[in-house]
Amino acid sequence: MSIVSFDLEGDFAAFKDPSVTTNQTVTVIPSKSAVIGLLGAMLGVKRSNSIFDGIYSESYLDLLKKTAVGIQVRSQVAKCTFFTNHRSLKEAKTKPYKTELLVNPKYTVYVKSTEQINEALLDRLKDNRFVFSPMLGHAYCPARIPQFRKISGIEEVEPEELQVSTVILDEIVESKSRNSGVKFEQFSDFPAKVMVERHLHHYIDGDSLKRVVLRHFIPVPENGKDSVIEIERYTSCLSIAKFYSVEGSEQALCLF
Asked: What pTM did the predictor assign?
């Protein structure tokens, strides 16, 4: 079993929170849908072919169904905020509109898919030639991919007592339970900083597209070092996230 990983960075990123409409609030990480859209742009898989085909094309849904992704934050979290004046449609005046941007974001993205999709992605990465230019959430946030690699020798493992520095998906829906599905045990040797974001997560259940808001636990670098955390307990309710050990590495990957 093998996966493809590549570094993803840019001067700015604008992954918007769709639940906020009064201003442009951005998140630290892209949702899985945003990553699938990024891969689709690189491979030439369109989200929708026309307005008559619905929101998502069959090829996009097929890519979503067959692909699991993992995300590791490689940069310190920094945001800049600015305001612009927008004309009000209700009154004869302007009102300020808040916009946020992530500054100098850096990620490592892990992709586990079919052999055909993985090989197509590797071919694109080798030539640095993509069907559509990859963006970090907006057209004014172009992405750079400085390096990539194919990782072999991975094996699915149970999450308990694993060391992880990638984003961990919590499959417990908060509206159904107040308890978290993930319990961590922090290393004394590796002080960890973990942020929590809620993303609208899209996944395929059988032949149906499902949408649910789930917590994402994000280890972010602290004092120039990657945050490493240990999972003491993990509850899998939706069977979305899988954990994999990597040959030659002490840290495991969470892919969802």
From this structure: 0.91
Interatomic CA distance for residues 100 and 15, integer angstroms: 10
Q: How many domains does the chain have?
A: 1
Give the CATH number of the domain where residue 56 resides. 3.30.70.3120
Q: What is the mean pLDDT of residues 218-232?
A: 89
Nearest alpha carbon to residue 8 among 150, 129, 132, 146: 146
Domain that holds residue 85: 2-255
d(C-alpha 223, C-alpha 242), whole Å: 29
Mean pLDDT of the chain: 90
